[in-house]
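Dissemination and training. As part of the outreach component of the grant, students in the summer workshop were shown how a complex can be specified as a set of sequence lines and then modelled as a single object. The example used during the hands-on session is reproduced here so that future cohorts can follow it. Participants entered these lines:
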Amino acid sequence: MGVRDPHGEVTGTPDPVEKGFATLNTIRIGVKAMVQKDGELRKAEILSIRQRKDGPSFYVHYVDFNKRLDEWVASTRIDLTQEVEWPQPEKADKKKASASNKAAPSKNPKQQLAGDSREVSSTPDALGGKNVNVGKASRPSKAGGKENRDASTPGDSFGAEAASADGTPKVVDFEDVEMADAQDEKTPEEEEVKTVSGEIITREEEIERLRTSGSMTQNPTEIHRVRNLTRLQMGKFDVEPWYFSPYPDSYSDVDLVYIDEFCLSYFDNQRAFERHRAKCTLVHPPGNEIYRDENISFFEVDGRRQRTWCRNLCLLSKLFLDHKTLYYDVDPFLFYCMCTRDETGCHLVGYFSKEKDSAEGYNLACILTLPQYQRRGFGRLLISFSYELSKREGKLGSPEKPLSDLGLLGYRQYWRETLVELLTEPNREAMSENELAVITAMTEKDVHETLVVFNMLRYHKGNWVIVLTDYVLDEHNKRLEKEKVKGARKIDPARLQWKPPVFTASSRTWNW
Amino acid sequence: MTRYGGLGRTRPKKLTAKASIPIVREHEIDVIDDELQSTLQQIETGVEKAEESEFHLQVAINATAKGNVNAAHIPTPETILSNLQYDELYPPLFSQPATYIRFSSTVEDCCGCPYNMNEEDDVFLKIFNQKNPANRCSEDDFEATMNFFEETAEAKQPFAAVDSPPVLAFADMEDSMDAAVEECVKRFAKDIYEHWKSRRIAAGNRSLEPSLKFETGQDTDDSDPYVCFRRREVRQIRKTRGRDAQSAEKLRRLRKELEDARQLVALVRQREVARKEMLSMERHLFAQRSEVRDMKRKLNIKDDDEDLINQKPKKKQPEMPPRQPAAPQLRMPLKAGLQGAEDLQLLEDHQAEKENEIMRDIKQNIAKHIKWNEGFVDHTRAPLSPSPERTFDTAAFRPAFTAQLPTPPSSEASADAMDTSLDVSPLSGRGDKLASRAMELHEEPSRIPSFRRRVGRGGRLMIDRRNLAAGCKIEMDPLRSDRFKFDQEDSDEESSYETDGYSIQIMQHRAITMAKAREQAAVAAHAQAQAQAAAQVQAQRRLQAEQAGNNPGSNGPPPAPPAMVAASSEA
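and obtained this result:
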């Protein structure tokens, strides 16, 4: 597609300009442009470009929107009447840029990219050159008029975030690298090349973090920024995936991936899926039912015993959980799966995973309500169930961090409601945070922060008081009324048939 | 644990977790310190820092903080109802059990053949079945065959995706067909192989079903986002000899156990095959019989139809004694073919039982006899009820056991007993009685020579003896005794010889030596004296003999008690 030719020429220009007008042909990956979203223009970053019959389409990430809203847009939605921000010229880019410039005259971007990556990866001095990453002099020359190195750089969101996260310039650097070549999802070698010494340390740290902690932390390089599945067929629903998930890479080419609702196996072919359905006999999660009430059942599934099923579950949930990592296997986790029942079986609604032995005292690793069942209070039940298990264990627990945006809201709501419910009990005149924690199985920290967040903990006339604000009381009463009408959806501890499982050291770890 | 912003002049008290905090309503406090914003900043959301600033989240957080929960809505991609024929794909088969479900089968257990055919396979199969109407291949058989190919290829070319070898040849496929391979696979393998091969080639000799990427041990693994579910490194255990031996032992045991299990399964298989054969034989037999029956009907033969039923061997009477000691038996479910084991009876048990019965009878009879004979002494030969008063005898007569005592037995007890009969001359009745008692004695004691000492009138000592061996068996021949004659020193004599003067051997020996001494003395004294003449001049000779008895004491027995003299004189 000729994108590169003008681009190469532009990057060749020495003056460092951050903004500029672009044409469809000059837009490249990393560019931030204004894109039509729900009737308004939003700044969005181009993460991938693909050629379609009717012209190129662009995978865009809206700045300050969650990644789940990333999408493929046609070129018509990009407002080229406004200036675009060119990707920040980072140190690594020069090599690549030069490499790509040399390789530029190819027609197909994919081919070209492949060529690039190979070339780069084969040149050892790419690494060497990157190590000496302060080559400011050379950078502008390569960066051309498009790249800006100003305060309001294109990387501002990333730069700022990265800095606040780590405070190390390395990370900023690293983010930029990432951003610049997020395009080439097909060429992992290239990414490899770019993770040079500086970042390798952080990578090792990341892996170490993965090794020692639970499931949620994720190496930024692992974030695959372009969603790979288009659409999902599961049960009675067609679901749009939110994030990347490492399903077989050929699946990114098909329009619809079929997921068996019970065994969670995946198929890229309808006929094969139907054949499978004719044979599959599973009608509920393959574990022991530990809770049952009128509406739902909970099944406990051991990652070690049900490896295939739990892997399938993780692949599926990765589609909706950004910060879940599938880096390591499922052995050290237990999966608590919530189902609704009908005559076809127990349909998975949501689940949470839990480390068999959490060094950090987490009582929950990942939690997900499947999108087709969201906004119906199932998430609250899941959270509530996780605390019910903690109560049974006699421990205080907290979810593993980071939380997603939805997770944070869900948890804050649950915490608030739980605490308010306790505090409004008759004849309660005073309570310590510790008491609250012990009763709810929340950690003292969570209790305290919840009180603070909802402005309930105040310093009044030289004393601390818990204030039941009008707002929380209103909410509480609303909820009670709602429950009167709809019936309370609660976990009834009496129906929980569960003893905390005990694992030997060997079964907790990864020996197979 | 809290640091509550800068709250004006006074620094607030520290709040501890254990501190009880009063609960109040909003209207109960007047001043609201508007430090909300500053405190909110301090609370970590737990969301990834990079995402905290996201627009929708911030809106939602601020909305809840301001008390407007409904605004807290984070948009998510939509889900829509699928137009898939759900009811056909998911049949309503589930019925909820009354108890909580317990389940441990895996996905693999529940999904049947892992290969699922696609449209391409459909086309092939359709054509194939049209061509071979006689040998139709079902979808299941087709999938089983394809799966066999896939699995074999995976096993034989595990790195096919990396080093792209040629597609596995059919000969290799045939090689790996063993007993475990289903019949249908063998039947269709040849026909389906080409189809599989072409599909495999089209797929670049990769697995036909796309699979997840697992770690390959290469450096590219780490950066490849498709590589998932890595094994976590296991902590290295220090290697010691003990651990080596331990694990070797474990492996050995494991191997042995597996081998045992394999054997067991093989045997079970053998059994089942045999049973199957038996069933088919029975079936065959039945068919033949029904033929015979038909023939009989046709030919109007009437008999007792003995040939149409199995002649069952008559069952043995269950004469097993109920009190037979229950031998510990392995409780195994009795197989149809193993009924013989039930009435297996050990010969020993049977014999023991019989013997017990006999002994019981005998004992009963003896008891009866004893009852009848109460108050009587049975002097018949070998009486059934032996008389109880045998003890007297043993006390009176001392069996001349060769038990050697360090000192001569004290004779007091017996002396007491005997002294009562001091004046009693040997009574004939008594002698009879003794004789009869001797008869009663068991053979063994009756053979033992016994002696008793009596003191007669005037202080005469008498020794009675009985059961002396008829012929005096010379156990120590003269030559040999002679040989030891001077072995001992005189001072040691007493201690070196057995001191039981009544022991039969010594007495015999003494008698012999005395005889010798007598001879010698006779020779020495008279030189020409002859045996007959010696008998005639008894008194003189006795005197001489007595002298000899005393004189050759050097080689003789220990200093003889006075009884000794009497004994010798009586002998």
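Chain A touches chain B through 151 residues (CB under 8 Å). Students were then asked to discuss how this feature might be tested experimentally.
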